[in-house]
TrEMBL record:
May bind long-chain fatty acids, such as palmitate, and may play a role in lipid transport or fatty acid metabolism. It comes from the Bacteria. SUPFAM superfamilies: DAK1/DegV-like. Keywords: Lipid-binding, Membrane, Transmembrane, Transmembrane helix. Coiled coil: none annotated. This is Fatty acid-binding protein DegV.
Length: 287
């Protein structure tokens, strides 16, 4: 069986990691002059508390030694492995993982190892990992799983909003003027991902209006919302995530919705109150 590996930016819940034997590697979180391994010795709620108190966290990629050790273990045991990483457009983890893969292949030239750039973030590539792990458990081949990942990479949509523009300002996603005016006017930006990078899409006033628009965009972009898993991730805002889920069910009838909390790696940049929606605009064909 192909081993599926990911990192903590994928925001998958522990029960799915355990059920599908997914290996999750930790990104690094730096806050209040301390360095942590995401989801190892710091949890999202703790980070969001720090942020609400004024802390400005930073993140770093998965340590190369951890990547190499994990890939070496798979190669040594003759296990095919696919490591699905956070988008190369927002993290250096993919590039580092490729270097580590090449080093492992020098020692184990016959090993079947691939590093896959999700061009995605949060539960966006969490859904990719989830689908790959399901296929691995079903006995699909290495190449079949890669084919599915390529479909997701091409057709996965990310629509999200943030509660406080200050966090996007720190990350250089909006100008200082836009952040100040947006806060004063209670403007909520709607953003999306394109080619693995974040881009503003629309600006609306009021959270309820934003949630409605997010669902509208999903319905506009998706050729079908039947038989797909829709993902919702939130940064310590279960109430809004629940409201979005109920709105999706009401508008589309699709109840196959996975809801999870945004972890430290993504939450450090998006900030508390972020809400994100993920879906395929073209369903995967059943082979």
């Amino acid at each position: 069986m192909t081993t599926i590996i990911t990192d903590t930016g994928s925001d998958l819940p522990k029960q799915l990691l355990d059920e599908y034997e997914i290996i999750m590697l930790p990104l690094i979180v730096q806050v209040n002059d301390e360095e942590y391994l995401d989801r190892s010795n710091i949890e999202p709620k703790q980070l969001y508390t720090y942020m609400k108190e004024g802390a400005v966290p930073k993140t770093a990629q998965v340590p190369p030694s951890i990547i190499k050790e994990t890939l070496t273990s798979c190669a040594r045991n003759g296990q095919p492995a696919i490591y699905i990483t956070l988008s190369s457009g927002i993290s250096g983890t993919y590039q580092t993982a490729v270097l580590m893969k090449n080093e492992v292949l020098e020692e184990y030239p016959n090993a079947q190892i691939e590093v896959f750039d999700s061009q995605s973030a949060s539960l966006g590539y969490g859904l990719m990992v989830y689908e790959a792990a399901k296929e691995a458990k079903e006995g699909k081949s290495f190449d079949e799983i890669l084919h599915t990942l390529q479909h997701y990479q091409k057709h996965l949509e990310h629509i999200f909003t943030v509660d406080d523009l200050e966090y996007l300002l720190r990350g250089g996603r909006v100008s200082k003027t836009a952040a100040v005016m947006g806060t004063l006017l209670k403007i909520k930006p709607v953003l999306h991902m394109e080619d693995g990078k974040l881009f503003p899409l629309e600006k609306l006033r009021g959270k309820k209006k934003v949630l409605g628009r997010m669902v509208e965009i999903m319905k506009e972009r998706a050729s079908s919302l039947d038989d797909i898993t829709i993902g919702i991730s939130h940064a310590d805002d279960t109430e809004t995530a629940k409201a979005l889920k109920e709105l999706i069910i009401e508008e589309t009838g699709n109840k196959n919705i996975l809801v999870t909390m945004i972890g430290c790696a993504i939450g450090a940049h998006a900030g508390p109150g972020t809400i994100a929606l993920f879906f395929l605009n073209t369903p995967k064909k059943v082979s």
